[in-house]
Specification:
six-stranded parallel sheet; 15 strands; 452 residues; binds nicotinamide-adenine-dinucleotide
């Protein structure tokens, strides 16, 4: 703990220096002192490798261990680490539970978990128990029990958990968050969001390349088709709610003066995945006989304690261009992501939309103004840089992250609750209060700053 405190002191000084340097390069972002955050990455598939690429550019992080059960992924990660001129990390992955040996290492301060969903909570709980600062990919949990496991483990161990929800850092989302915090929309009333992404070519492949070919999944597939598609086969639920609901929850301070109270969910029939298999593999392909449980469009309405509603859509099995479909609406006006438009009463032409561009430029978030240029290459239009930056900076100081165990639980709880509601003809389902009453006095996170 002592060395951690010294480390924090030193890096804080170095960090203060950084803000004076003009024309930051990616690596200059961070401290020049010798002590680095010792990071392990569990799961170096597509997402974990993206995180690896980003941390290899930082001077304040050393990757001391990696773990993956796929030797090909380990090989690729080691190559990248070598090419970056970094020390060879310790390698794990001999079995499904080899990550537990990684967690015993003393030279690991923090871990990033980018594995299939069913591993998330188990690995995060073990990591917190081992005293590691834990970063967890989305979604965090699959069942209500898992949601509670995250909260309970955080509380009993004191270890922090950060949900690595990158969409909270999207440039337009952050500009709108800035507008919300400056009260441009007035009192908040209604939100829309979702995950509307044609994933048919991700859910199926030929077992050789990740995207675009074949109709195999499970044991015969690779990458996400190996594990993700099974959830569509067996669950009629919004299985991926956090990209949409995370940014909205930040805007209306969920778990910090507000909370999710209840939801209702409805699902359409599911025809998209079956049609895709028939069109691309033929009607006699064995997978054409499967009945996918997941409805193609799942619509959930959440009510909050402060009287807002949030409509969350999961739409991943039909042909469509990508959109998270955001809408943020308050007493004075609204922003709509689809159509890229804004209306603010008294400032916009009455009953006419403004193009959102000017507004988003005017309210560009301080973080994007400062780091926008160097963030852009980091993946997903730059937001991956910011989420990793927030993780590393929070871990270095060992302080509560922007998106914590309570957020991970409340946002992920949409999956089991939507499933129960759909199963019961849209019956309302109550959210547990994961904060055990403390949402009333927890202070909103300070999103509007230019550090992380
Ligand atoms: N935030 C985002 O924008 C974003 C984007 C893509 C994926 N994701 C999330 O990241 C996670 C990983 O997705 P992905 O696309 O990288 O999938 P992937 O299948 O490419 O990678 C998962 C990796 O985990 C490894 N793995 C599986 N079980 C393991 C175990 N027991 N121990 C160690 N390694 C194990 C696999 O071998 C694989 O390499 C998922 O939760 C997904 O939802 C988030």
């Amino acid at each position: 703990m002592n060395s951690r405190r010294n480390f924090v002191k030193k890096t804080a000084l170095a960090g203060a220096g950084v803000s004076l340097i003009p024309n930051l390069s990616f690596g200059a972002l961070t401290s020049t002192n010798q002590q680095k955050l010792k990071l392990a990455i569990i799961g170096v598939g597509l997402r974990g490798t993206n995180h690896l690429n980003n941390v290899l550019l930082r001077k304040d992080v050393e990757v001391t261990a990696i773990c993956d059960i796929d030797p090909k992924r380990i090989e690729l990660a080691l190559e990248k680490i070598k090419d970056a001129g970094s020390n060879k990390p310790k390698v794990f992955g001999n079995s499904d539970y080899d990550y537990r040996n990684l967690l015993e290492l003393k030279d690991v301060d923090a871990v990033v978990i980018s594995t299939p969903w069913l591993w998330h909570t188990r690995m995060a709980v073990d990591a917190m128990k081992a005293g590691k600062y834990t970063g967890l990919e989305v979604s965090a949990a699959n069942t209500m029990e898992e949601c509670w496991d995250l909260v309970n483990t955080h509380e009993t161990t004191g270890s922090h958990l950060m949900l690595l929800e990158n969409v909270n850092y999207r440039r337009d989302v952050m500009a709108v968050l800035n507008m919300v915090k400056q009260n441009v929309f007035g009192e908040l009333v209604h939100f829309r969001c979702g995950y509307q992404h044609d994933l048919r070519f991700v859910k199926f492949n030929d077992g050789k390349s990740a995207y675009g070919k074949g109709v195999e999944f499970g044991e015969k597939g690779i990458s996400e088709s190996k594990w993700r598609t099974q959830h569509s086969l067996l669950r009629n639920a919004d299985v991926y709610p956090t990209h949409g609901v995370g940014p909205m929850a930040a805007m209306c301070d969920v778990n910090r003066g507000n909370r999710f109270m209840s939801l209702t969910s409805h699902a359409t029939k599911g025809i998209g995945l079956h049609n895709y298999i028939v069109d691309n593999g033929g009607k006699d392909h064995p997978n054409a006989k499967l009945k996918f449980k997941q409805g193609d469009v799942i619509t959930t309405t959440i009510e909050t304690a402060n009287g807002e509603t949030i409509i969350v859509t999961h739409d991943c099995n039909l042909p469509r261009p990508y959109s998270l479909g955001f809408r943020v609406q308050g007493a004075n006006g609204l922003w709509e992501d689809d159509g890229k438009r804004m209306y603010i009463e008294g400032q916009s032409n009455p009953h006419h939309w403004d193009s959102a561009d000017e507004w988003l430029k005017k309210y560009d978030h301080p973080l994007w103004q400062k780091y926008g240029e160097l963030a852009t290459g980091a993946g997903h239009g730059g937001m991956d840089f910011f989420v990793m930056n927030a993780f590393v900076e929070s871990a270095k100081e060992n302080i509560a992250p922007p998106m914590d165990a309570y957020d991970a639980a409340a946002w992920s709880a949409i999956t089991p609750l939507s499933e129960a509601s759909i199963e019961n003809n849209g019956e309302p389902q109550d959210f547990p209060d994961f904060t055990r009453g403390t949402w009333v006095k927890r202070k909103p996170y300070n999103w509007i700053k230019d550090t992380y």
